[in-house]
Specification:
The structure holds 2 protein chains of 2 kinds. By secondary structure, chain A is mostly beta strands. Helix content of chain A is 0%, strand content 58%. The relative contact order of chain B is 0.33. The chains are: A mainly beta, B mainly beta.
């Protein structure tokens, strides 16, 4: 069963706006990762945040992690039409030494030009 | 190579036939993972390898699914006696020595069971 839940399931915004996606999980983790999937393609790794980190930035991406609430958020600033994709959070579990990733159900982001 | 290469891109099989999927991980990566994606969202972990050794197979439906990673050969995932519910996109990923590093995914093989 999926331990990750993401909201919203779908998000539609205008180019230039910010997009925020949230992810919750249930078990203890080593790290949390965000991936992007364009239609018909594989997952592209965006950013990894470790369990002892609270915030991380990469370009227009900002990820936060709150282990007390078992939640994470991904913020994309100044969105572009090319950001249209599905976004997934994935956790590495302490019990399995982080070997397998457990994915959320994803957020479909549409950025309208 | 610098990318995870999966073949074929699309595989069509009749129910009950065998299906075999291949994955060439990124050169130098020690870990290989297989995931199944059904209906464009849920990803299910199947199995992982550390070099040619099975590392974690707790996600594998063992009755019909098998996988190998042999030296100097692409890794493979084989499904015997396919069923309609096996229709999915199967993704392979690889990562470097540290399991906590990002996994790099191939573009997947779309398996259609008719």
């Amino acid at each position: 069963s999926q331990q990750g839940e993401e909201d919203p399931q779908a998000l539609s915004i205008q180019e230039g706006e910010n997009a925020t996606m949230n992810c919750s999980y249930k078990t203890s983790i080593n790290n949390l990762q965000w991936y992007r999937q364009n239609s018909g393609r594989g997952l592209v790794h965006l950013i990894l945040i470790r369990s002892n980190e609270r915030e991380k930035h990469s370009g227009r991406l900002r990820v936060t992690l709150d282990t007390s609430k078992k939640s994470s958020s991904l913020l994309i600033t100044a969105s572009r039409a090319a950001d249209t994709a599905s976004y997934f959070c994935a956790t590495g579990n302490e019990e399995t030494s982080g070997s397998r990733l457990t994915f959320g159900e994803g957020t479909q982001l549409t950025v309208n030009p | 190579g610098e990318e995870v290469a999966q073949t074929p891109k699309h595989l069509v099989r009749g129910e009950g036939q065998k299906a075999k999927l291949y994955c060439a991980p990124i050169k130098g990566h020690s870990y290989v993972f297989w995931y199944q994606q059904v209906l464009k969202n849920e990803f299910k972990f199947l199995i992982s390898f550390q070099n040619e050794n099975v590392f974690d197979e707790t996600g594998m439906p063992k009755e019909r699914f098998s996988a190998k990673c042999l030296p100097n050969s692409p890794c493979s995932l084989e499904i015997q006696a396919t069923k309609l519910e096996d229709s999915a996109v199967y993704f392979c990923a690889s990562s470097q020595v540290d399991l906590r590093e990002p996994q790099h995914f191939g573009d997947g093989t779309r398996l259609s069971i008719l």
